[in-house]
Protein backbone atom coordinates (compact mmCIF):
# COMPACT_ATOMS: atom_id res chain seq x y z
CA UNK A 1 0.00 0.00 0.00
CA UNK A 2 1.32 3.45 -0.93
CA UNK A 3 1.67 5.58 2.21
CA UNK A 4 1.21 9.34 2.34
CA UNK A 5 3.39 11.77 4.31
CA UNK A 6 2.95 15.40 5.33
CA UNK A 7 6.11 17.38 6.10
CA UNK A 8 5.71 20.78 7.76
CA UNK A 9 8.05 23.64 6.87
CA UNK A 10 9.39 21.90 3.77
CA UNK A 11 10.15 24.95 1.62
CA UNK A 12 13.86 24.72 2.42
CA UNK A 13 16.46 23.19 4.69
CA UNK A 14 15.96 19.84 6.37
CA UNK A 15 12.21 19.66 5.58
CA UNK A 16 12.86 20.12 1.86
CA UNK A 17 15.43 17.31 1.93
CA UNK A 18 13.10 15.01 3.91
CA UNK A 19 10.42 15.66 1.25
CA UNK A 20 12.91 14.83 -1.50
CA UNK A 21 14.02 11.57 0.11
CA UNK A 22 10.48 10.41 0.97
CA UNK A 23 9.13 11.21 -2.51
CA UNK A 24 12.02 9.38 -4.16
CA UNK A 25 11.36 6.34 -1.98
CA UNK A 26 7.83 6.08 -3.42
CA UNK A 27 5.87 7.72 -0.60
CA UNK A 28 3.12 10.09 -1.67
CA UNK A 29 4.45 13.38 -0.29
CA UNK A 30 2.60 16.52 0.77
CA UNK A 31 5.00 19.46 1.07
CA UNK A 32 3.78 21.83 3.79
CA UNK A 33 4.48 25.53 3.27
CA UNK A 34 3.08 28.52 5.12
CA UNK A 35 3.53 30.62 1.98
CA UNK A 36 1.77 29.24 -1.09
CA UNK A 37 4.24 30.71 -3.60
CA UNK A 38 7.22 29.27 -1.70
CA UNK A 39 5.49 25.87 -1.65
CA UNK A 40 5.03 25.96 -5.43
CA UNK A 41 8.65 27.02 -5.94
CA UNK A 42 9.95 24.20 -3.70
CA UNK A 43 7.73 21.72 -5.57
CA UNK A 44 9.22 22.86 -8.89
CA UNK A 45 12.76 22.56 -7.50
CA UNK A 46 12.00 19.01 -6.34
CA UNK A 47 10.45 18.10 -9.70
CA UNK A 48 13.75 19.15 -11.32
CA UNK A 49 15.39 16.56 -9.01
CA UNK A 50 12.85 13.92 -10.12
CA UNK A 51 10.99 14.04 -6.79
CA UNK A 52 7.24 14.51 -7.27
CA UNK A 53 5.48 16.19 -4.35
CA UNK A 54 2.20 18.06 -3.84
CA UNK A 55 2.33 21.45 -2.09
CA UNK A 56 -0.19 22.20 0.66
CA UNK A 57 -0.55 25.52 2.45
CA UNK A 58 0.02 25.03 6.16
CA UNK A 59 1.08 27.58 8.75
CA UNK A 60 1.76 25.55 11.88
CA UNK A 61 1.44 28.70 13.99
CA UNK A 62 -2.20 29.08 12.89
CA UNK A 63 -3.16 26.47 15.48
CA UNK A 64 -6.83 27.50 15.63
CA UNK A 65 -7.47 26.42 12.06
CA UNK A 66 -5.30 23.27 12.04
CA UNK A 67 -8.16 20.82 12.81
CA UNK A 68 -10.27 22.09 9.88
CA UNK A 69 -7.23 22.40 7.63
CA UNK A 70 -6.29 18.75 8.27
CA UNK A 71 -9.84 17.59 7.49
CA UNK A 72 -9.68 19.57 4.24
CA UNK A 73 -6.24 18.27 3.27
CA UNK A 74 -7.21 14.63 3.97
CA UNK A 75 -10.48 15.11 2.05
CA UNK A 76 -8.55 16.44 -0.97
CA UNK A 77 -5.49 14.16 -0.86
CA UNK A 78 -6.42 11.10 1.22
CA UNK A 79 -5.31 9.96 4.68
CA UNK A 80 -2.00 11.10 6.12
CA UNK A 81 -0.06 8.07 7.40
CA UNK A 82 3.19 9.86 8.22
CA UNK A 83 3.47 13.27 9.89
CA UNK A 84 6.85 14.99 10.06
CA UNK A 85 6.72 17.91 12.49
CA UNK A 86 9.73 19.66 11.01
CA UNK A 87 8.80 23.38 10.92
CA UNK A 88 10.68 25.25 13.61
CA UNK A 89 12.09 28.64 14.48
CA UNK A 90 15.07 29.85 16.48
CA UNK A 91 14.53 33.52 17.27
CA UNK A 92 16.41 33.94 20.56
CA UNK A 93 18.53 37.08 20.37
CA UNK A 94 21.38 37.72 20.34
CA UNK A 95 22.04 34.46 18.52
CA UNK A 96 23.97 31.71 20.14
CA UNK A 97 25.19 30.89 23.58
CA UNK A 98 25.16 34.57 24.50
CA UNK A 99 21.35 34.68 24.30
CA UNK A 100 20.68 34.89 28.01
CA UNK A 101 17.61 33.94 29.97
CA UNK A 102 17.73 37.53 31.23
CA UNK A 103 17.34 38.92 27.68
CA UNK A 104 14.41 36.65 26.86
CA UNK A 105 11.21 38.55 26.08
CA UNK A 106 7.74 37.14 26.58
CA UNK A 107 7.14 37.75 22.88
CA UNK A 108 10.13 35.61 21.81
CA UNK A 109 9.00 32.88 24.18
CA UNK A 110 5.38 33.00 22.95
CA UNK A 111 6.29 33.04 19.25
CA UNK A 112 8.75 30.17 19.66
CA UNK A 113 6.25 28.18 21.69
CA UNK A 114 3.44 28.60 19.15
CA UNK A 115 5.52 27.35 16.19
CA UNK A 116 7.72 24.75 17.88
CA UNK A 117 5.24 23.28 20.39
CA UNK A 118 1.60 24.29 19.85
CA UNK A 119 1.77 23.60 16.09
CA UNK A 120 3.11 20.03 16.43
CA UNK A 121 0.67 19.41 19.29
CA UNK A 122 -2.32 20.56 17.21
CA UNK A 123 -1.19 18.47 14.23
CA UNK A 124 -0.72 15.38 16.41
CA UNK A 125 -4.18 15.86 17.93
CA UNK A 126 -5.70 16.28 14.47
CA UNK A 127 -4.02 13.32 12.75
CA UNK A 128 -3.26 10.69 15.40
CA UNK A 129 -6.89 9.58 15.93
CA UNK A 130 -7.18 8.71 12.21
CA UNK A 131 -3.87 6.84 12.33
CA UNK A 132 -5.05 4.82 15.35
CA UNK A 133 -8.38 4.05 13.69
CA UNK A 134 -6.67 2.90 10.46
CA UNK A 135 -4.09 0.89 12.42
CA UNK A 136 -0.96 2.56 11.02
CA UNK A 137 0.92 5.79 11.67
CA UNK A 138 4.35 7.37 11.96
CA UNK A 139 5.01 10.73 13.60
CA UNK A 140 8.49 12.20 13.61
CA UNK A 141 9.16 15.28 15.71
CA UNK A 142 12.26 17.06 14.44
CA UNK A 143 13.75 18.08 17.75
CA UNK A 144 17.23 19.02 18.88
CA UNK A 145 19.79 18.04 21.42
CA UNK A 146 19.44 21.66 22.54
CA UNK A 147 16.30 20.36 24.28
CA UNK A 148 18.09 17.51 26.07
CA UNK A 149 17.40 17.84 29.80
CA UNK A 150 20.21 15.42 30.58
CA UNK A 151 22.75 17.80 29.04
CA UNK A 152 21.04 21.19 29.44
CA UNK A 153 23.08 24.36 29.03
CA UNK A 154 22.27 28.05 28.84
CA UNK A 155 21.94 29.98 25.56
CA UNK A 156 18.91 29.92 23.20
CA UNK A 157 16.52 29.64 26.20
CA UNK A 158 13.23 29.85 24.27
CA UNK A 159 14.42 27.37 21.64
CA UNK A 160 15.78 24.94 24.24
CA UNK A 161 12.59 24.98 26.29
CA UNK A 162 10.48 24.49 23.16
CA UNK A 163 12.47 21.43 22.09
CA UNK A 164 12.28 19.92 25.60
CA UNK A 165 8.49 20.35 25.33
CA UNK A 166 8.49 18.77 21.86
CA UNK A 167 10.32 15.80 23.38
CA UNK A 168 7.64 15.60 26.07
CA UNK A 169 4.95 15.66 23.37
CA UNK A 170 6.75 12.71 21.74
CA UNK A 171 6.60 10.69 24.97
CA UNK A 172 3.02 11.65 25.81
CA UNK A 173 1.61 10.94 22.34
CA UNK A 174 3.52 7.65 21.99
CA UNK A 175 2.27 6.49 25.40
CA UNK A 176 -1.31 7.51 24.66
CA UNK A 177 -1.32 5.79 21.26
CA UNK A 178 0.10 2.60 22.80
CA UNK A 179 -2.56 2.65 25.54
CA UNK A 180 -5.54 3.54 23.34
CA UNK A 181 -4.69 1.55 20.21
CA UNK A 182 -2.42 -1.28 21.43
CA UNK A 183 -2.85 -3.36 18.29
CA UNK A 184 -2.22 -0.45 15.89
CA UNK A 185 1.21 -0.07 14.27
CA UNK A 186 1.95 3.47 15.50
CA UNK A 187 5.49 4.79 15.98
CA UNK A 188 6.08 8.26 17.38
CA UNK A 189 9.67 9.38 17.85
CA UNK A 190 11.86 12.46 18.08
CA UNK A 191 15.00 13.05 16.03
CA UNK A 192 17.95 15.38 16.39
CA UNK A 193 19.39 16.10 12.92
CA UNK A 194 22.70 17.41 14.28
CA UNK A 195 24.13 20.82 13.39
CA UNK A 196 23.05 21.23 9.79
CA UNK A 197 23.96 23.83 7.12
CA UNK A 198 20.58 25.57 6.63
CA UNK A 199 19.29 29.09 7.19
CA UNK A 200 18.82 28.12 10.84
CA UNK A 201 22.07 26.21 11.27
CA UNK A 202 24.22 28.74 9.37
CA UNK A 203 27.18 28.24 7.05
CA UNK A 204 29.48 27.09 9.86
CA UNK A 205 27.40 23.98 10.58
CA UNK A 206 29.13 20.65 10.23
CA UNK A 207 26.48 18.54 8.48
CA UNK A 208 24.74 18.52 5.10
CA UNK A 209 20.94 18.52 4.78
CA UNK A 210 21.26 14.95 3.48
CA UNK A 211 22.88 13.87 6.75
CA UNK A 212 20.36 15.89 8.76
CA UNK A 213 17.38 14.29 7.01
CA UNK A 214 18.65 10.73 7.30
CA UNK A 215 17.35 9.91 10.81
CA UNK A 216 13.92 11.60 10.37
CA UNK A 217 13.45 9.67 7.10
CA UNK A 218 14.49 6.41 8.77
CA UNK A 219 11.94 7.03 11.57
CA UNK A 220 9.24 7.90 9.01
CA UNK A 221 9.68 4.48 7.38
CA UNK A 222 10.19 2.31 10.50
CA UNK A 223 8.98 -1.27 10.21
CA UNK A 224 6.34 -2.62 12.64
CA UNK A 225 9.13 -3.95 14.88
CA UNK A 226 10.68 -0.49 15.16
CA UNK A 227 10.90 1.65 18.31
CA UNK A 228 8.34 4.15 19.57
CA UNK A 229 8.60 6.92 22.16
CA UNK A 230 12.34 7.36 21.58
CA UNK A 231 14.82 10.14 20.83
CA UNK A 232 17.34 9.42 18.05
CA UNK A 233 20.44 10.91 16.48
CA UNK A 234 22.19 9.16 13.60
CA UNK A 235 19.66 6.31 13.97
CA UNK A 236 20.85 5.61 17.53
CA UNK A 237 19.00 6.38 20.78
CA UNK A 238 20.14 9.43 22.73
CA UNK A 239 19.29 10.48 26.29
CA UNK A 240 16.30 12.81 26.82
N1 LIG B 1 19.76 23.33 11.24
C1 LIG B 1 20.14 22.80 12.39
O1 LIG B 1 21.36 22.79 12.73
C2 LIG B 1 19.14 22.13 13.30
C3 LIG B 1 19.62 21.46 14.44
C4 LIG B 1 18.74 20.83 15.29
C5 LIG B 1 17.38 20.85 14.99
N2 LIG B 1 16.92 21.50 13.88
C6 LIG B 1 15.48 21.49 13.62
O2 LIG B 1 15.22 21.06 12.30
C7 LIG B 1 14.01 21.65 11.81
C8 LIG B 1 14.28 22.28 10.45
O3 LIG B 1 15.30 23.26 10.61
P1 LIG B 1 16.11 23.91 9.40
O4 LIG B 1 17.51 24.02 9.85
O5 LIG B 1 15.78 23.23 8.11
O6 LIG B 1 15.48 25.39 9.44
P2 LIG B 1 15.27 26.48 8.30
O7 LIG B 1 16.26 26.34 7.22
O8 LIG B 1 15.19 27.77 9.04
O9 LIG B 1 13.84 26.09 7.70
C9 LIG B 1 12.71 26.19 8.53
C10 LIG B 1 11.49 25.81 7.74
O10 LIG B 1 10.36 25.93 8.64
C11 LIG B 1 9.39 26.74 8.00
N3 LIG B 1 8.54 27.40 8.97
C12 LIG B 1 8.88 28.27 9.96
N4 LIG B 1 7.78 28.67 10.62
C13 LIG B 1 6.73 28.03 10.04
C14 LIG B 1 5.34 28.03 10.27
N5 LIG B 1 4.77 28.79 11.21
N6 LIG B 1 4.55 27.22 9.50
C15 LIG B 1 5.09 26.47 8.52
N7 LIG B 1 6.39 26.46 8.24
C16 LIG B 1 7.21 27.23 9.00
C17 LIG B 1 10.18 27.69 7.11
O11 LIG B 1 9.31 28.22 6.12
P3 LIG B 1 9.54 29.64 5.38
O12 LIG B 1 10.35 29.32 4.15
O13 LIG B 1 8.16 30.10 5.09
O14 LIG B 1 10.27 30.54 6.35
C18 LIG B 1 11.23 26.73 6.56
O15 LIG B 1 10.69 25.96 5.51
C19 LIG B 1 13.59 22.66 12.89
O16 LIG B 1 12.57 22.12 13.68
C20 LIG B 1 14.84 22.88 13.69
O17 LIG B 1 14.57 23.28 15.02
C21 LIG B 1 17.78 22.15 13.03
Quick take:
The protein has 240 residues and is α/β, with parallel strands linked by helices. The chain has 6 helices and 8 strands, in the order E-H-E-H-E-H-E-H-E-H-E-H-E-E.
Question: What topology does this entry show?
Answer:
Blueprint: E1 4-7, H1 13-24, E2 28-33, H2 36-48, E3 54-57, H3 66-77, E4 82-85, H4 106-134, E5 136-142, H5 157-180, E6 185-191, H6 209-220, E7 231-233, E8 236-237
Parallel strand pairs: 1-2, 1-4, 2-3, 4-5, 5-6, 6-7
Antiparallel strand pairs: 7-8
Descriptive notes:
The protein is α/β, with parallel strands linked by helices and 240 residues long. It has one domain: NAD(P)-binding Rossmann-like Domain (Rossmann fold), CATH 3.40.50.720. It has six helices and eight strands. Strands 3-2-1-4-5-6-7-8 form an eight-stranded mixed beta sheet, sandwiched between helices. Helix 1 links the parallel strand 1 and strand 2. The mean pLDDT is 97. Bound molecules: NADP nicotinamide-adenine-dinucleotide phosphate (NAP). The site of NADP nicotinamide-adenine-dinucleotide phosphate (NAP) has 29 residues, from helix 1.
